[in-house]
Each structure stands twice: as C-alpha cells, then as structure tokens.
C-alpha cells in the first residue's frame, strides 16, 4: 500500500515550474526565510512546494504584495509600470541558515561587468576607446587561457 502524500495547495508539484527567489534579510528570526514568488502563488502552494521539494517543516507562511512602481520613460515619453512583486516570509520548524554569498570572480564578474559597460556604450553610439578596449581584450585572453587549461586537465 503506497504512503499517502499530504497536499496543501491547489496544485501538485511534480516538476517545479515556479521560481522562488531567496531574499537575504537580517531582520528575520533565525527560523524564518523570505522569498520573492509569483503573484498567482498562494500560501498553501508555498507550503506545499517547500514541504515536498525540500522536505522542510513549514509552520507559518505570511505573504505581502508590493505594488509595481511607475516611472517616466524619457525615450518614449510614456509612463512605464514595473510588475507587482509578492514576498513570502516562511517560518520553519528548524533554524534556517543562508547559503554562502557567491563569489563574483567564480562567474567572471569583472569580465561580465566590463562587457556590459562596453555593450551599453555601443548602444548609445559611442566609439570604444583604447584603454577600455585593452582591458576587455586582457580579460578575454585570461578567460580563454583558463578555459584551455580546464580542457587540458580533463
């Protein structure tokens, strides 16, 4: 006889198609965690998702919907509205520890920052000058060397 599975929310979670973003906050108690979730997900779905996917015991779920902010676009002369954001504060049975903050150097942080800067300048019609071009070429060469070394090792 199969073990009956508890279902709290409206949907069964077979393969997760919703994204929960963990939000770091020092204001919360040690047994609480905050997530940014889609607006259409309710408290029971949050509890169901965390219980069945991660095997944690959820005691309480509190949610709040923040309204989208309105900004005036200079280019199109129209008001642009950002979408609403829903935040869920989950109280767990055991203490929650945040994972270590990622190191940007592991993800080529300097290369990504510089290439984004170059791309933004090109979009504005700027010509890329020599110092910025040299720095980008240097970072690209370092990245290529690292990838070659990894290929040789494996």
UniProtKB/TrEMBL annotation:
Q: What domain of life does the native source organism fall in?
A: Eukaryota
- List the protein's name: Large ribosomal subunit protein uL23m
Instruction: Give the Gene Ontology MF terms in alphabetical order.
Output: structural constituent of ribosome; transferase activity
Q: Which InterPro entries match?
A: Nucleotide-bd_a/b_plait_sf, Ribosomal_uL23-like, Ribosomal_uL23/eL15/eS24_sf
As for family, the record states:
Belongs to the universal ribosomal protein uL23 family.
Q: Name one GO biological process term.
A: mitochondrial translation
Q: Does the keyword Ribosomal protein apply?
A: yes
Pfam families in the record: Ribosomal_L23
- Which GO CC terms are listed, alphabetically? mitochondrial large ribosomal subunit
Keyword tags: Ribonucleoprotein, Ribosomal protein, Transferase
């Amino acid at each position: 006889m199969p073990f009956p599975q508890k279902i709290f929310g409206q949907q069964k979670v077979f393969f997760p198609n919703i994204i929960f973003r963990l939000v770091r906050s020092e204001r919360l108690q040690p047994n609480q965690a905050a997530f940014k979730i889609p607006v259409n997900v309710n408290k029971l779905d949050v509890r169901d998702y965390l219980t069945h996917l991660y095997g944690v015991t959820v005691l309480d779920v509190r949610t709040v919907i923040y309204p989208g902010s309105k900004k005036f676009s200079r280019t199109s002369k129209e008001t642009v509205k950002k979408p609403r954001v829903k935040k869920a504060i989950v109280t767990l049975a055991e203490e929650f520890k945040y994972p270590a903050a990622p190191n940007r150097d592991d993800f080529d942080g300097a290369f990504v920052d510089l290439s984004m800067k170059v791309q933004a300048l090109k979009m504005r019609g700027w010509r890329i000058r020599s110092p910025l071009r040299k720095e980008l070429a240097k970072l690209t060469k370092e990245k290529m060397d690292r990838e070659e070394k990894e290929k040789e090792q494996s």
